[in-house]
Amino acid sequence: MGILSGYRVLDCSIAMAGPFAAQRLGDLGADVVKVEPVTGEWQRDRAAGGATGKQINSSFLSLNRNKRSLAVDLKSDDGKAVLLELVKTADVFLQNYRPGVAKRLGVDYATLKTINPKLIYISMSGYGEDGPYARLPGQDLLLQAMSGAMLSTGRAGDPPQPAGQYLADAVTAYSAFEGALAALLHRERTGEGQLVEVNMLDAVITIQMQELSVFTQGLKPQTRSAEPHAHCYIRAPYGVFATKDGYLALAFANLATLGELIDEPAFAAMDDERDSWTHRDEIFARTRARLTDKTTGEWLELFRAHDIWAGPVYGYDDVVADPQVAHNGTFVEYDHPTEGRVKAPGFPIRFAATPSAVTRGAPLVGEHSREILVEAGFDEAAIARMIDGGAVRQH
């Protein structure tokens, strides 16, 4: 019984940002009904990273646990009637259709609030519901590029560097998750539902709160250095450096202490707050030249003993095997009826009284259609007619 037990979410989203937001609500105990076409959401058939799975690929599996699947044809009268019936008792409706699609389908906020005035309606988009870019494709890499973030790291003159994660999708998902929780809290206080709009462009820009404020308020230009500095607004040394046997990350160490430890006398006369900015490339290059003298483990032991901020550079095999990760219970494991034993990242928020749990894995297409329709009040004859007619799919 999670903290959101008793709330129902209608998840009409696709791809990553929407399903991830809905999954977070499901992880907290909400009854999330994934409303998908009778053919299944398109991402079921996309082999992300080449991982196809048995009946459910790894990408879909990772974004749709703790949900039930209702497979309906929203372009049919019966399919639309099913969804509108469910809206009557839903708490949250979440969609990330392109602007205008929800209205064409008759599931826009203006329509649904007449059916359920207390409904929290989460509308997610790439660039906003209107404006000059409203109809452009809201894809993660494109939004990262437009956000300015790619030019805050790496070498001057090198191509802009995107994140190694679906950063725009992930932060948009968490923004929608946060918006849904806040709107539910408002409704608990006032009884009032509302429309909540989240777009990827605003989400990925606003996580750069510090960097963009330094630019807009501090009037400091976004200037990349000649060396591969990890952040254009943080003093040297700050980045990833090769060692004798691998790599380590080093974050703005005291120059005098660092110079002594790595046998770099030039650092002794440097001022942390002045020279670490004006001699950024020199400091990076001198540090890089010295760190190949020892292994990563040797440097980490030495640096940690002298309060120098440094850490290992992990691959995913290291992450999964890390003792702190194991101690935290960062990954969860559960059995899936078609995919077998599943291991995946779990829950970043811990509630002492209402802990999150995996109560069901990602559903098969239409796996729960019949039980959801029964709960909504449809009789067996109507359900059989809709399944036979193709408006509803039951696995």
TrEMBL record:
Domain of life: Bacteria
Root EC class: transferase
UniProt cross-references to Pfam families, sorted A to Z: CoA_transf_3
InterPro entries in UniProt: CoA-transferase_III_domain, CoA-Trfase_fam_III, CoA-Trfase_III_dom3_sf, CoA-Trfase_III_dom_1_sf
GO MF annotation, one: transferase activity
Enzyme Commission designation: 2.8.3.-
Keyword Transferase: yes
Assigned keywords, A-Z: Transferase
The protein's name in its UniProt record: CoA transferase
